[in-house]
Amino acid sequence: MVKNNRYRLFLTGFLLFAGVFGGAYAQQAANLQQIGPTDKAATHAKLKATATEAGSGKEIYPMTPYDISPLLIGEKIEEASLKDADGRSVELAKVFDNKPTVLVMYRGGWCPYCSKQLSSLQELEPELIALGYQLVAVSTDAPEQLRTTLEKKELKYTLLSDADLSFARSLGIAYKAPKEYLQLLPTSTGGMDKDLLLPVPAVYIVDKTGCIQFEYINPDSRRRLNGDLLKAAALSLKPFL
Q1: Domain total for the chain?
Q2: Could you tell me which residues come within 8 angstroms of residue 123 by beta carbon, excluding any fewer than 6 positions away?
Q3: Per-residue pLDDT tens for 135-170?
Q4: How many CA atoms does the CB half-sphere of 116 hold within 13 Å?
Q5: DSSP structure string for the chain
Q6: Any idea what the CATH number is for the domain that residue 51 is in?
Q7: How far is CA 119 from the centre of its chain?
Q8: Domain of 119?
Q9: Most buried by CB count within 10 Å: which residue of 44, 56, 135, 193?
Q10: Phi and psi (nearest 5°) for 215?
Q11: What is the Cα–Cα distance from 241 to 146, expressed in whole angstroms?
């Protein structure tokens, strides 16, 4: 009950502001804080209902970033095993269990908007750590590409590889890549992106159980969450995580 009140008092207003600032699914997430858990689950199930092609068992994907059906605030992120920059497996549930997490989903080191965001996050990381958070960023890049990004951008936080986009799919933010990316993705993902997908850039604040407490998801990949807004969200959520 405390969480629901907290969502209404903080996230509804904040996400509406974030929605004005950059569009995104903030409005949808904020609206869903006003309904009960059963209704929210039913609503999300309805959004996911077309994820599998009738009769074929073949998974189909949104054709544009505006067609995605993302996980919503209050829902739990599925367990996932990702690779770090050295190619080692990392269980995300164990990462979350360590401390509250600012989880960033970005397209890849090849994306100029992602590159700028990664640098901005590095500047913000000390403040997030001081608030009790850890910063983790996940992309479609293969592990060797992550190593290049870490060294080039001089990043101190963790980068993880979701080269086959299985994690992005579980978050509901994967969509079919436009044709201008079809030659790039087999190389940047090490051939793992068999379905030629891209993730919609997103930022989550996740508690130690893997439950989403805040999200910013914008189908316009040029518009990223402002650092001041992220810091405000992290500060406001701190007493409850």
Answers
A1: 1
A2: 227
A3: 999 999 999 999 999 999 999 999 999 999 999 999
A4: 10
A5: -HHHHHIIIIIHHHHHHHHHHH-SSHHHHHHHTTS-HHHHHHHHHHHHTTSB-TTT--B---SSGGG-----TTPBPPP-EEE-TTS-EEEHHHHHHHS-EEEEE---TT-HHHHHHHHHHHHHHHHHHHTT-EEEEEES--HHHHHHHHHHHT--SEEEE-TT-HHHHHHT-EEEPPGGGTTTHHHHTTT--TT-EEEPPEEEEE-TTSBEEEEEE-SSTT----HHHHHHHHHHHGGG-
A6: 3.40.30.10
A7: 17
A8: 2-240
A9: 193
A10: -150, 150
A11: 29
For the range 112-121, what are the long-range contacts, defined as Cβ-Cβ under 8 Å and sequence gap of 24 or more?
A: 113/201, 113/221, 113/222, 113/224, 114/139, 114/201, 115/149, 115/153, 116/224, 117/201, 117/224, 118/149, 118/153, 118/155, 119/153, 120/224, 120/227, 121/157, 121/227
Residues 6+ apart with CB under 8 A from 135: 101, 102, 104, 121, 124, 125, 128, 129, 157, 158
- CA 139, CA 158: separation in Å to the nearest integer? 11
Q: Considering the entire predicted model, what is its pTM?
A: 0.80
97: phi > 0 → left, psi -120 to 50 → alpha, else beta; which?
A: alpha
Which residue is it, tokens 């500060």?
Answer: 235
Segment among 23-27, 97-101, 222-226, 236-240 with least mean pLDDT: 23-27
Distance CA 25, CA 70 (A): 8
Distance in angstroms (rounded) separating the CA atoms of residues 148 and 161: 13
